[in-house]
Amino acid sequence: MSTSAPATLTVETLEHDGTRRLIPLLDARRPLLWQRRDRGLAGVGEVLRLEYSGPTRFADAARDWAAITAAADVTDEVGLPGTGLVAFGTFAFDDSSAERSVLIVPRLIVGTAEGRTWVTRIRLGDAADGSPELQPRAIGPEYRIGFLPGTPGPDGYRAAVAEGVRRIAEGGLDKVVLARQVHGRLPAGADLRRALGDLALSYPECWTFAVDGMLGASPETLVRVVDGRVSTRVLAGSAARGADADADRAAADGLRTSPKNTSEHDFAVRSALAALAPHGEELTTGEGVFALKLPNLWHLATDITGRIGDGSGSLDLLGALHPTAAVAGTPRADALATIHELEGFDRGRFAGPVGWVGAGGEGEWAIALRCAQLGADGAITASAGAGIVAASDPDAELAETRMKLRPIIEAFG
Ligand SMILES: C=C(O[C@H]1C=CC=C(C(=O)O)[C@@H]1O)C(=O)O
């Protein structure tokens, strides 16, 4: 579904010498955030909201966005990625998901990068500028919530993994990523900026995001398109952190040399390269596979970079890349069919793209991992998955999903 675009937007970006702290500026209940370290975008209010679903959701969004940006009247005195007209977005994982995919254009954006800060105000046509005030607000009182296992529970998850391994042994399927959910409930009036602040502080290497109630801290860059260049960080293959420095080093070395994890990782790198090949030039994996250290675990990581060869924007590349083998499996169609059968729940936006797009199609998108979706009634659902290959062990994969749920459970707990 799409609204009848294009709307005519008037956009003005001005340099700002005020605060660089983004989280206190956000709406406590409807935050819009994209942040890593001292760089990011905070959105307040909503001037335009576009909703999509089904297999054409990326193409529909790209078409509408091109029409909206072509019709917009933009004044931008800063000229950095993330200035001018920007929409935040979160997309459903599955073509058949009941969850809406959305692009949201805020009324006010505060951005910071490269030591500079800017404010963008956006309004519909010639409407008077009723944009929200640029006002940091004290973070609301503390709260703690517990999460309970959802579908499948731990036993069900182990059984699904065992069945996934059995199907891989049968032949045809090489890898499948299986996930599970946990559920909690936020107290009325809970200030979401509290959890976002915690995520941003605890996971500085990750993209801390909040879009339409989808929030988390993802280490995986699905695609970054800036100045005609494309990059992606592929993650797949994980290990627990060691209890001391020696054990930690051994954990990273063990991960790098583990045939199980390297095969899991190779599937993900190959799927990303194959998806980018028709759109990119001079694609390279740079220094190759490395171990990425996060507070809760190690990941095998590969950075792919290149030039855009066909004029694709970031939304076009989402359609090409999603879902990678880091969140679906290999071959993709068999993996998706297996996920439908064995997981037994709608992933919603978990493992879908989340990020922002600018007027020239540039943008930064992560895979929505280490995240939770907030419902209108305060229900909150966190999800985590693990890549299953021939050598997977159900207990180890269950333990891995526990580590991956930690960022959310601790941010709210
Ligand atoms: C599916 C998830 O992680 C993916 C990304 C990194 C490592 C993964 C793994 O080792 O299984 C997964 O492919 C998740 O965090 O829920």
From TrEMBL:
Pfam families found in the cross-reference section: Chorismate_bind (PF00425)
GO molecular function terms noted in the UniProt entry: isochorismate synthase activity
Gene3D superfamilies recorded: Anthranilate synthase
Catalytic activity, reaction form: chorismate = isochorismate
UniProt keyword annotation of Disulfide bond present: no
Family the UniProt entry places it in: Belongs to the isochorismate synthase family.
Protein known as: isochorismate synthase
